[in-house]
Amino acid sequence: QSSMELSAVFNRLKGVAGQHAANGKILEMKRVQRFAVDVTLDPDTAHPCLILSDDGKQVKHGDVRKNFPDNPERFSKCVNVLGRQSFSSGRFYFEVQVKGKTKWDLGVARESIKRKEFKPLSPKKGYWIVILRNGNEYLALAGPPVCLHLHPGPQKVGVFVDYDQGLVSFYDVDAAALIYSFTGCCFKEKLYPFFSPGLSDGGKNSAPLIICPVGC
């Protein structure tokens, strides 16, 4: 009986510890959500095959390349788009719905990134991003890339940046779980929210990326 009692006590303690851990994750999520900012997509940076919603909150890949002017800000090789808002100090946070997608890129990029060429993305190139490929392969492009074991995958991703501390963190919003953090970053210029919905892949990846109100 004593061993059964010990087992019961142990299980209760495990339950309490688990509850404390869950509460800690929720508190951390709420802490970063306090720094929520309003982000909208910048059509002047969007690749010509991307379709942006009128409110600047959604982006998806279309099969027709539109005849947009090839201004310096526009991505011409990769289906990327930046946010209108830039940040050069302090902390900021935004959330993006990725539900129903098999491929996406999310994060932040510095102002001076090359927009007219196809190059692997990494912090060295001015990108701090997490990507999804093939529906279930998650990577942090840390150079070399880091495999992320996320099962199930996130439906909504939160991106938190502390510019002054050199930190970029990604969260699974619904699970209140940290996905990955880039630490020790050296930011010296403006950062912009970065998005790529990926190619539509014959309709398999036609769902849009949606910038969501935080806390909804």
Characteristic key phrases:
216 residues, alpha+beta, Jelly Rolls, 2 domains, seven-stranded antiparallel beta sheet, six-stranded antiparallel beta sheet, 1 helix, B30.2/SPRY domain-containing protein
In short:
With 216 residues, this protein is of the alpha+beta class. It is built from one helix and 13 strands; from the N terminus they run H-E-E-E-E-E-E-E-E-E-E-E-E-E.
Any overview of this molecule?
InterPro entries: B30.2/SPRY, B30.2/SPRY_sf, Butyrophylin_SPRY, ConA-like_dom_sf, PRY, SPRY_dom, TRIM/RBCC. This is B30.2/SPRY domain-containing protein. The chain has one helix and 13 strands. The chain has two domains: 34 residues; 177 residues, Jelly Rolls (Sandwich), CATH 2.60.120.920. The chain has 216 residues and is an alpha+beta fold. The mean pLDDT is 91. It has a seven-stranded antiparallel sheet, covered by helices on one side. Helices cover 15% and strands 31% of the residues.
